[in-house]
Amino acid sequence: MTVNKCRSVMAVAGLLVAAIGLTVTPVTAEKIKNNVAVFAALDKVSARISHLEVPLNTTVEFGALRITPRTCFTRPPTETPHTTAFVEVQEVKLNKAKEPLFMGWMFAESPGIHGVEHPVFDVWLTSCKTL
Question: Total structural domains in the chain?
Answer without folding.
Answer: 1
